[in-house]
Amino acid sequence: MRVVVDLNRCQAYAQCCYAAPSSFALHGPEVLIYDPAPPPERRREIERAVQACPVRAIRFEAEPSEREEGRHG
Predict the structure, then answer these.
(1) Integer Rg of the chain from CA
(2) Per DSSP, what are the bridge partners of residue 61?
(3) What pTM does this model have?
(4) pLDDT at position 61, please?
(5) How many CA atoms does the CB half-sphere of 46 hold within 13 Å?
(6) Quick one: CA torsion of 18, 24, 28, 30, rounded to 10 degrees?
(7) For the chain: N or C, fewer Cβ within 10 A?
């Protein structure tokens, strides 16, 4: 899985930090630190973070192998 944050769009509301604290953190008042390649077991919390972002600055992409597992699993 790959996480992409549009840092130009991000307004540091920190909703992603509450939804996925093991993947997102604010450093100071405005600098977002995040894991661009979290392990698959964090998928649900990343999905919550994507939905929680009020400016829709976060998106994630499943790796081809993950997409295949989703179809067969």
Answers:
(1) 12
(2) 2
(3) 0.80
(4) 86
(5) 21
(6) -90
(7) C
